[in-house]
Here is the input.
Amino acid sequence: MSGGGRVSSWARELAVGARFALAGGPGWTRTLLTAAGVGLGVVVLLLAASVPHAVAERNARGDARSPASLGEEMPPGPDTVQYISNGTEYRGDSVGGMLLRPDAGADTTAEPPPGLDAFPAPGEMAVSPALGELLDSPEGELLAERFDHRRAGTIGAEGLKGPNELMYYAGAEALPEERALRTDAFGVDSVGTELPPVLVLLIVVICVVLLMPVAVFMATAVRFGGERRDQRLAALRLLGADTDMTRRIAAGEALVGALFGLVAGVGAFLALRQFLGSITVWEFSTYPGDIVPSPLLLALILVAVPVSAVVASLLALRGIAIEPLGVVRESSVPRRRLMWRLAPGVLGLLLLLPFVGSFDSGSSAEQGQVATGVVLLLAGTTVLLPWLVERVVGRLRGGPVSWQLATRRLQLSSGAAARTVSGITVAVAGAIALHMLFFGARTDQTVATGDDPDRAQIEVSRTSADGGDMSALVGRLESVPGVTDSFGSVVGDAVTETGDFTPVLVADCGTLRESAVLDSCANGDVFIANSGDVPESRLPAPGERLNLAVSWETGEAAGEPRWWTVPETAPLVESRPDASGQEHVGILATPAAIDPGLLADPWTEVLLRVDPHEADVIEHVRNVAWETSPPAQVWELESERVSDELLQVQQALLVGATGIMLLIGASMIVSMFEQLRERRRLLSALVAFGTRRGTLAASVLWQTAVPVGLGLAVAAVVGTGLGALLMSMAGLRLGGWLAFLPMAGAGAATIALVTLVSLPLLWRLMRPDGLRTE
Here is the structure.
């Protein structure tokens, strides 16, 4: 046959397969199931391909609203603006904010930040739509107490990172010069920072782990309805088609299902991205217009999905002999061989082992090699699982009727059972490895703060022109419901007559005992504290005069001297860190010994003990702190703090993992529906012979539980080994060996979900009309 004739013949055979897929009845059902499976995968792939553009647009809007002269001193002018970043936090969500004051007032020529048509007037503010909605709702009543500005506008989309961001701009009559900064424009060029190797490794593995189950599931979806398809191909053999023709017809049938899935996936993606603009996951939201796949990745998906469907369909026919009188697959099949199934895992190990203890993330080639190695190791679970399922179920004998029905079915089609759970196996193996890597990365990227949350849980601090208002602040904080104790202090600087500086802390005896080891204390006492790291010669001596008129921030004399003499009876005591981890040396004095109002430009700090069972206690504290001028800063004390980069990576992982787990659950449900549909006549016949419906329901449970259990076992071994290898590559201390336990729980939950959802269909398929045939 000539080349043109061969192409024409192949086209006709592909068209025959397409007609089978569109012929109605069972053909339509298989096509729809395949399209549903492929469509789900396409949605996830398109969303993943849209992440770079969405993140870039989000960051660009954040850069566009940043003051251009951040940190630079600038004289006032007609085009300059004073500003103070004045954000807060509410119930775990960040609320961004900025106080603005144009130097030229209403005559300013400065451009307002993106999203604003004009600068808000003094006493007015513009809020993001999400913040406005929150302030108007009962859930935002506490937050609304912090804003006494009149709402005069709404921030446009170009001034927000995402549609659900909480953000405001407020106009101010005057801003304190010591806190305010000045700029003549908004917008900066972001400068990327180089991530530590462990975070680069983490990101590479996350990308692989989140996308591998999608590819596995799509390959499985193309093989839905394989038994009925093979029977149709056997009928074609009876009409004269040869083996190659049947394979091309099968390829045409798979191609139609994949194309339908591609169209359905694109349509679902376009509909879903409109919905995504209304939700926030782990403080991440984005505009629908930002969710646009990269053109290169989009083209790759549009080409790779149908090609992969055809390849998967042809590979599925390799081990099946379709003859004119039937499908040989239903007879005894050769036992699966183990050796070649170990090859992907071994090759993956060979790619990863050279980086043990030496991965530095400096080369994209290295990152590609790591990604390839992880892909091969995880792919090894999918090729190893069918062999394991075949070996295990082949040895199962006896048991209740439901168990025997399930095991016999698994013995007849162990490959289909393994394919059904291959996606969850890959996902769980990757999740275990990621959990272990996160365990090590969190240890590596976590620093001890020195805070002691057992002694106090909240810190409130502020600068003040008058240290005498400390007692008023403490009184307001103590009145907050849920505050059980407080430790207020005023910290300033003093200078001796010889020019030596020394810190001065003024507080009551209860607070001083938190900062030093005291045998006794009464109002009027003074102590000289030393940590052991400062020579006593550098500490003020009893009888020495100190000038208290020294700025705490600048360390320079402030106005007329305010002399104070260290009492001759002041003892030397040992200092100790307070609940915030700060260790105070120098002068510790009670209010009767030093009037806090004598300190120039002091720093006020209040540590609070709170009742953990009191709801919103920290929000009430923030409201009190917000009333001060300037607003006091509020922190929750933590014994350790994780790097922001790791938290951002973890945030991305949680968003992606949520979508992948939904995909896995949906894929197993679709697979179960396909298997039940193919066994409709068998189920109806069993019921007609007197088998109880509960027995058949239990058999469905066992048919899901056995492959999932074996898949989880493989995932635990591979995931733990991969996790240990990745930790060794990053130079992290090995740990997190029990990471597979939560995954086992997830597997059990998946089994329960799939069984529960499949019961209505199972009950319908067991009706007597299932015995009808044509």
